[in-house]
Design a protein that fits this description.
Non-ribosomal Peptide Synthetase Peptidyl Carrier Protein, Chain A, alpha/beta, 14 helices, TIM Barrel, globular, two-stranded antiparallel ribbon, 2 domains
Length: 330
């Protein structure tokens, strides 16, 4: 049974990773409906929050059906992080998560995200300040280390626990690896098996099938898994893993009807939440995955990623349903 503070997440929970321009309310609604146990907002700049920047503030939006949910923040300045923690608390999420894992240069060059892995003492101090500044449970998402020579995650997790975090999610790569190569879960397991560590440890990286989720569960002993890229355009991965954990059986893939219905719901909610221009634009990354493996899908996909007329987009989705009505993915 995995618990973050008083939040009961059940046996082997599945978490949706915070992803910029992906894990927004429209997408989270789909993942929750498919069995995701805990979700996070897109990561939010603390500087944007304390300056009341529209894009940052909008990311605080939480809907009742999404709970339990964590709001994730990133930043490097202690004063800004403390003030942002107070703003986050007012939004009433179940927890506050700190991003110490984002590898993007524009974030790391400011010693935010994974950048702070170059200065563990600062990371611990900053974490303590945030824990002290809020009544919310504080969790951390991070990586194994900055590079191959600084994979101190076992010690880091213990030190963060000692200053008050309630759970840690670990991506099995260094910052230098970005998203290349294979995620190394052996150090995630070592962190989990540290007898001095008592908080839940969630593994992240390369979980893209029910079989792999169960294999890693059994092999590495983590409390749950966090799924990121494999969920993009594929919210069904959560129900598929849940079913496989419970029964050992592989669920049939979602039908064409389910895929089209999800794409339509996603598009409609995206437009409602972000406005027409951004809502249509940010949906485009999902279409390829919604219809991955469909033969001769390219003309339809081209239409979906270039059109900015809602009626045309909906008609294109209807055409996919009609064209592939009898198609079954293996």
């Amino acid at each position: 049974m995995a618990k973050i503070a008083d939040i009961d997440l059940g046996d082997f929970p599945l978490l949706l990773a915070p992803m910029e321009d992906v894990s927004d309310p429209p997408f989270r609604a789909l993942c929750k409906a498919q069995g995701c146990d805990m979700m996070y907002t897109e990561f939010i700049s603390v500087e944007g929050l304390i300056r009341d920047a529209t894009k940052s503030v909008q990311k605080l939006d939480i809907y009742p059906e999404e709970r339990p949910i964590g709001i994730q923040i990133f930043g490097a300045e202690i004063d800004s992080m403390r003030r942002a923690a107070e703003i986050v608390e007012e939004a009433k999420p179940e927890l506050l998560d700190i991003n110490y894992g984002c590898p993007v240069k524009k974030v790391t060059c400011k010693m935010a995200g994974a950048g702070i892995l170059q200065d563990i003492d600062r990371m611990v101090k900053l974490t303590k300040e945030i824990v002290d500044a809020t009544n919310l449970p504080v969790t951390v998402k991070t990586r194994l280390g900055w590079d191959e020579n600084t994979k101190y995650i076992v010690e880091v997790a213990e030190r963060l626990q000692d200053v008050g975090i309630k759970a840690i999610s670990i991506h099995g790569r260094t910052r230098k690896q970005m998203y290349k190569g294979e995620a190394d879960w052996s150090l995630i397991a070592e962190t989990k098996n540290n007898p001095r560590l008592h908080i839940p440890v969630f593994g992240n990286g390369d979980i893209d099938s029910p079989q792999k989720a169960v294999e890693y569960k059994n092999k590495y002993g983590v409390d749950g898994v966090m799924i990121g890229r494999a969920s993009i355009g594929n919210p069904w991965i959560f129900r598929e893993i849940k079913h496989y954990v419970k029964t050992g059986e592989i669920l049939n893939p979602p039908t064409v009807e389910e895929r089209v219905a999800a794409a339509k719901q996603h598009l409609n909610h995206s437009i409602e939440w972000k406005g027409k221009v951004l809502g249509i634009l940010e949906m485009r990354r999902h279409y390829s995955n919604y219809f991955r493996g469909f033969p001769h899908i390219k003309p339809f996909r081209q239409e979906l990623v270039t059109q900015d007329d809602v009626d045309v987009l909906m008609n294109t989705l209807d055409s996919i349903l009609e064209r592939y009505a009898d198609f079954e993915l293996a």
